[in-house]
Batch of 2 targets.
Target 1
Amino acid sequence: MASKTFHRYFPTKGYALYWILFVYLVVGFFYPIIGLLALVCMVAPVAFAVKKGRWWCGNACPRGNMYDRLLAKYSPHKPIPKFLRSFGFRLFMVMFIFMMFGVQMYFAWGDLSAMGKVFWNIIFATTVVGVVLSFIYAPRTWCSFCPMGTLSSWSSPRKPKLPKGFVNIHVSERCQMKCKSCARVCPMQLTPYDSRGVAVGYLHPDCIKCGKCVSACPIKIMSLQH
């Protein structure tokens, strides 16, 4: 099968959190101080990552929710370019975004509305970039190098012994890795079947714990465990 048609859309369960993003962008445009609320989405992903990995990205991020629930229906689901996932590019994005943020915040410091506008501008600009990339490659292309997502992946547990409450994908040794349904529906275009029979489960730092691979498994030999 051609690589451009390997990945596919898979419905997302849960709540339509993308409305939080829409309300934030609209209200924040008229009342810039609202922009300061973006601080939650900057701190929470990394805070959760220490014990849960990139759980926030797959379960609580309003923008990620928009990619999965809305844009995924219309995206071509092409492979995310490897260079966008590379350490060098992701490090550059972290430094670039925080440098831009720091410079703008320096001039806005002391004025809450101006500071809120800085947050709003960054959320708006990166959302536009993310939407465009969704229609060029895959819905969560932006998430592959999102600065907060990158910091979350760097903070995620990678080795046993795992923190209490850590959510992880487990693949039974009975998996024959033939259908690769888990990889077809993974929003991050990862390959959970690589962890077949591994006791600690799938420890890829970019796994967002969304559970789509578990739901898509045709013979139900995958599970999301604590």
Target 2
Amino acid sequence: MIKADQSLDCRGLACPMPIVKTKKAMGQLEAGQVIEVQATDKGSLADIQGWAKNTGHQYLGTVEEGDVLMHYLRKANPDEVKEQKKYKHVVSNEDLEKKLASGEKVTVLDVREPAEYAFNRIPGAFSIPLGELENRLNELNPEDNIHIICRTGSRSDLACQLLAGKGFNHVQNVEPGMSEWTGPKEKTNKIN
């Protein structure tokens, strides 16, 4: 049994709510204390890891109990905390829709989980879940004009920061993302 100083119930919540609640709860902890975040959103693993990396808090690990993911984080000391940055190059859903309609050469990278992508995606979007992105960079061309999308703009923000840090020069975060996408959509009609 892993001992945590605080437990946070985020079961049933979708991105970005587990991060929003974790950020608020982390503010109540003392430096060095551990929080357990319980979540059912499979995307929360990559979200929590990315958020911890960007803020300086320590991601300790995740334990799966049935369909619940128990994420463990240690609050950083004040000198370890980083100001959470947002990626500066942002494009709106409408701007991306116009670019696609005009035939502009744009790579749409969808960093949501496979099930999210299967049921609702931009036609032609390329799927690499955020948690796999660092190990699959070779599938992308650093010179392409890459527009990254997720459900709300949070995971895609982390993905943009990761790619920019790896030498990708033409990366845009699409906000507010698929939760408000009104352009053309497609879905998988059968599951293998």
